Here is the input.
Amino acid sequence: MLKFGDKGQGQQQLGSLLRLAVNSSNQIIVSDYHNNNLKIFDPAGRHLFTCGSRGSGPGQLTHPYCVITDSEDNIIVADFYNHRVSLFSPDGKFIRHVVEEDITFSDFNPTALALTPDGHLVVSEFLCMISFFKLEG
Here is the structure.
């Protein structure tokens, strides 16, 4: 059995309320709620890189709640307190926000994500709502 991680705020340390995804290269993507970032580890548990930092700008996160990957290993993250869902490349570079709070989704706090086989992003929201979005390039 493999175990890795150490509690803390350093680049290779983990906070609490972790969510996980695994990409096609078996890299482990960790959504670190309290450290406000994503950490990527190789299959042996070695830290590869961290993306995101606390804030509300492009590529920044405030309490990432859920993480998944798409068929191209892009990273999709539910950014709870920024009220949006963001897309990062497989190497952690910010691409764009795929869903943001607007008048239609006031108080939008995404909590879980899934992808359908036909390319829709399914998002559950803290206030008891599930929405479908078409991911476009």
The mean pLDDT is 90.
